[in-house]
Amino acid sequence: MESGRVTMDRNADAPWSKFDPEVYVDLNYRTPLEVDLLIVRLMRDHFSRCYAGAVPDSARGVDVGAGANLYPALSMLPWCEKILLLEYARPNVEYLERQISPGGLDAAWDPFWDVLRAAPAYRDVDPGARVSEIVRVERANLFDLDGQRRWDIGTMFFVADSMSECPEEFQRGVRCFMNALGEGAPFAAAFMKESVGYRVGEHQYPAYRVNEDRVRESLEPYAAELEIHDLHHMVRPGHEGMLLALGRRNSEIATP
Ligand SMILES: C[S@@+](CC[C@H](N)C(=O)[O-])C[C@H]1O[C@@H](n2cnc3c(N)ncnc32)[C@H](O)[C@@H]1O
Fold it and tell me: Which CATH architecture describes the domain 18-50+57-249?
């Protein structure tokens, strides 16, 4: 009799040090997908609504598990004095360092900027110059965010659901992200729907299967004005679309 698989891939077990950012960009972003452009538009409009056209004085932004994706950071650009890209995998940290160096922003991110600059707040920003001026990269583990450090605006794209197969690590990922946001902070978080894991080059990475209800349940304790967009676009076999959650951090105190 064939025995079922009983162990679950935990975050610490996945080959993060082998993550290939160039292959990942080729797979996901080099040819922009309609769904990503739609996500960028929804996020742009959400942040524009939250700030109602008034640029805050000294907002600090964070993109957690930034990986090889610059569009969440670009979406925060007009609103922030500083943006931190927090990432665990060393090859991705090196990729991000190259992207934020003067003149380093890859043309692959232009189509995403084209969507952003259709909104007034983005129009006069020079993305390449501003990225190298205000964005910094830090190698860190999302699980080490314990509520001590807080940001004014934040994003987390395809991370809590795409880092482990364990339900408790998904919950912990969402909790650590939300506890890194100050009261009232606008946020955007994206999840692959019903993902069974993903391959980048030669390596396989784990995922925890989420649907709209699971995402809502995980975010609700921390969020105000929560809206979840169920985007039925398939990027590859092995998932059923994407979920985009938009909202603000509520006023509840951090949950341990
Ligand atoms: C599917 S990728 C998403 C990357 C990017 N945010 C995007 O939108 O394409 C998952 C990312 O989570 C990062 N990651 C995995 N475990 C992490 C951890 N414990 N702390 C911080 N980042 C982690 C990976 O290195 C990878 O960059």
Answer: 3-Layer(aba) Sandwich (3.40)
The CB of 75 under 6 Å from ligand 1? The reply is no
Give the ligand 1 atom nearest the CA of 24. 9
Q: What is the Å distance from ligand 1's center to 232 Cα?
A: 22
Q: Ligand 1 centre and the CA of 16: distance in Å?
A: 9
124 Cβ contact list (under 8 Å, min separation 6): none
What pLDDT digit, counting tens, does each position of 115-133 carry? 999 999 999 999 999 999 9
Domain parsing of the chain, residue ranges: 18-50+57-249
Q: Note the pLDDT of residue 57.
A: 82
Q: Report pLDDT for 120.
A: 94
| Residues of the chain where predicted confidence (pLDDT) is lower than 70 | 1-6, 53, 234-237, 253-256
The whole-angstrom separation of Cα 128 and Cα 103 is 6
The CA distances from residue 217 to 163, 194, 212, 223, in Å, are 19, 15, 9, 10
